[in-house]
Amino acid sequence: MVRRMHRFFLAALFVLGIPSLAHSNPYQSSFTVKQVKGVHDLMDRIMAKEHVPGMIAGIWEGKKKSLIIAKGMADRDRGTPIQATDRYRIASVTKTFTAAVVLQLIDQGRIRLDDRLDRFFPEVPNAGIITIRRLLNMTAGIFDFFYQDPAVQWDYLHRPLKKWDHEALYKILISHKAAYAPGEKCVYSNANYFLLGMIIEKVTGNTLGKEIHDRVLKPLGMVNSSFPETPEMLGKVTHGYRDAKTPGELEDITRVDPSLAWAGGAMISNLYDLKIWAGELVEGSLLSRTIQKERLQWNTIKGCLGYGLGIMDWCGFIGHNGAILGYNNFVTYLPKRDAFVIVMSNKCNEDGKENPAQDAFLGITKILYPELVPWGKK
User: Fold this and answer.
1) Is the dihedral of CA 79, 224, 361, 230 positive or negative?
2) Which residues, in sequence order, are CB contacts of 232 under 8 Å at separation 6+?
3) Average of pLDDT values for 17-26?
4) Helix axis angle, 356-368 relative to 33-50, nearest 10°?
5) What is the C-alpha separation between 115 and 138, in angstroms, rounded?
6) CB contact at 8 A, 25 and 114
7) What is the pLDDT of residues 255-285, one digit of tens each?
8) Assessment of whether the complete model's pTM goes beyond 0.70
9) Residue-by-residue DSSP string for 3-14
10) Using an 8 Å Cβ cutoff, are 326 and 240 in contact?
């Protein structure tokens, strides 16, 4: 889940002319030695400063040679090095998948963007004027029980294996007043996506996990991605960590029940599957052109940070980020440069004080694309 928005290699040398096929380099160019060193040094600094066991970064740009970095440990107890193929919890990047299913249902005419919430959940405050569109683009004004209800937050932090049912969470949601009038502003709320997940299951008669698998993961060949129902993470995974009660120590928090995060943050994936997905989010091959255009209509959160229909825009870098106990990640695509920047760290406290992957994303984009991002300008 996302707590809140925070602040904002070796290079190949080429000879001019046409090389012989026998000695041609398959890449037109590469990131410079200075850029590669800068990214490595940045990740080292973040890992040391924030006590991060491991980080993964994948950077692709056009026909350049990709830059794939995996540093540190996937499992500290066993001394297992982290690898770029490792699976990990992607937290709020899950919202992009939930949104994709909703948008497909809209394409099929089974629901409409402007359907009101009272069609499904009349007990929700302002249900008569909240639309599916407002749930998707974070302008619904629904109280975010995940972080703002003290009892839920306490259980999340201290009872991570607690199993939640939808009815219990729904009762908590409707017990709170609206956070603001629908359409008044754009404010992130995990509760929006809890309701969207419930709507998907009402409309289809299937579980959200099945709909995501059948409609998104299977068509795109995302075999390393899943929507778990239990705390276990199958396959080759990186463990997740948070600060322990003893200063300087880390707690393994890999096993977390996904029922609370659910439609807004339960999924598991890896670097290479997420590259497929980042491209799809902008290309929209699973949607009609009309609905894809709607997906990329931005509402301003702050400055050049915007939110569309289950998708974010950081000054031209399009995708989503996520933070959940043990894991923090950024998944983005920059159409201007045909560039992907995807970063993961296997430490996250979920207290809003540390966001290693966010720090890495901001730093990497400043190194590689300083002229395109406001945080890269001196």
Assistant:
1) negative
2) 255
3) 34
4) 160
5) 16
6) no
7) 999 999 999 999 999 999 999 999 999 999 9
8) yes
9) -------PPPP-
10) yes
